Amino acid sequence: MTIRVYNTLTRKKEEFVPVREGKIGMYACGPTVYDYFHIGNARVFIVFDVIRRYLRYRGYDVTFVQNFTDIDDKMIKRAQELGITVAELADRYIEAYFQDAAALGIEKADVHPKATEHIPGMIAQIQQLMDKGLAYEAEGDVYFRTAAFPDYGRLSNQPLEELVAGARVEVDERKKDPLDFALWKKQKPGEPAWDSPWGKGRPGWHIECSVMSMQYLGETIDIHGGGPDLVFPHHENEKAQGEGATGKPFARYWLHAGYLNINQEKMSKSLGNFMMVRDIREKYDPQAVRFFMLSAHYRNPVNFSPDLLEQAQSGLERLNNAVYNLRDMLYKLAPDGTGATELLEKLTACRQRFIAAMDDDFNSAEALAVLFELARDANIYLQEMAPSRFVVEKALSFFEETGGVLGFFADKARGSLDAQVEELITRREEARRRKDWTAADAIRDELQTKGIVLEDTPQGVRWRRKA
RNA sequence: GGCGACAUAGCCAAGUGGUAAGGCGGAGGACUGCAAAUCCUUUAUCCCCGGUUCAAAUCCGGGUGUCGCCUCCA
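Output (C-alpha cells, whole complex):
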C-alpha cells in the first residue's frame, strides 16, 4: 500500500514518493509571533502534526521544520505599541506558542528556526537571484523579477495577466512589474535592520521560508505546507525564489489545509470574531479542539463554534472512556496466556482500515470512525464475565498505537489516588454492603466534587478523573 | 473579471459507479439500589433539472445556493 496525497501544485492526488528513500523532509510555515495564535492557525498546526506523526508511524525518518517569523511589519508595529523590542516581543509569543501548542498535543518540530537568525543565508540567496537576473535593486529595496520566472503562477494556478488585472495592491513606482515582490526592504527610521550589499534593511517575508527550508532540508524538500491563504502569494513566491536560485524543484508536494470559519464566516479582525487558542483553553479541553480538527478532512472548510466543540468533546469522551475502561480492566486482571477471540480479529482488521484511511490523503475522519467501531467492540468485550488480560492488552495497545498517530490517549499512567480518596472509596464500599445508600451516595457526591467519578461494575468499583 | 472549494439525517461528518461509515443529540429498551459507564433498537434515498449506464450520492451538462483566493490574514 502506498500513501497518496493531494498536491496543490498538480491539483490531484498523487502517490507519495520521497526524494530519498525512507527519508522525508517536511516544512510547514509557522506563526508570526506578534500575538497568541488563533484557532485557524491551530488547525494548520494540528494537521501537520498529525501528518508528521503518521509518516513516522509508516516507517519514514521524518525531519520536520516549522519556522517562526520574528521580523516583519506586524512585529515592528506591535513591538512599538507595547513599548518593547521586536526581539522581546518574539520571545514572549514564541514561549506562548509552545505552551498553547503543547496543550493541543502538538509535538515540537525537529527544528524551529527563526528568521532573524538566518539573515546571512537570505542575503546569499538574494545575491544568487540577482546574479541570475531574477532580482533587481531599486533605491535600497530588492525585488524579485517575476517576469523572468516563466513558471510564476503555476502553484496558485493563476495566469499572470489575471494576477495583474486582479491586483488590488497599489502600484509601487519602484517595482518594474506590479507582481514583483520584495526580497529585501530598506530600513525605515526606527526599524531593526541588518547590513547587506544593498544597505541596511531587512528581509522580505517570503525569502525567509525559502532559505530556512533549504538550509535544513536541502534544495528539494518533500512536503511543503501551510494555511490555505499562503498558496498565493507566499508559497508561489517561495517556489519562485527557491527554484530561481537552484534550478531544481523546490518542493515535491504542496499541502494546504482548508479554512476554518466562524459562524460560516472567515475569521477577521474587522468582524471581531478572532478566537485565540489561549482563550479557548480556559473554557474547553484543548484535546477536544484537537479532536474537532481531526473529525473532518483537513482540506475541507470547517465551521467552528462552541456548540460544535462540545459535540467534539462528547465524542472524544466516548473514546477516552473506552481506553479508561481497558486500562482499568488491565489493572484488575492477572496475566494469562493467549486469548483467542473475535476481538483479536477485529483488531487486525481495524488496524488495516486505519492505515488505509490515513494512506488516503490523511483521512483522519475515517480513521476516527475506525476507532469508534473498535471502541464499541472493546466495550462489549469488557462486559464478558472473564475477559482475558492478553486480549485487553492487545486492544489497549491498538488505541495507544493509533492514538499516538492522532495525538490522543497520551496519559498512560493510570494515576494514583491519595490516601484520603482511597479511604473514601473503601468506606463507600462498606456502606454499599450495608445497603446504606444514603451514605454511599454522599461519598460518591463528595468525590465528584473532587473530580473523581465512580462507576460500579461487575468486577468492582472503577474510578476515573473527570476531564 | 480570473481561479477555486463546498452542498449527504436535528447537528457534525466519511464515502467518488453497485442500492448510504462513524460521531453528537433525540426517542425507546437492557443493566444498576440509584447513578455513571456500557450495550441493544430507532432517527437520510445524498440541493434541483436533464443525460450516460444494467446500475449514480458517486460520471457528464445545465441550474440554484454558500464560501474563499486573486491585499506580507493560517
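Residues 194 and 466 of chain A are 53 Å apart (CA to CA).
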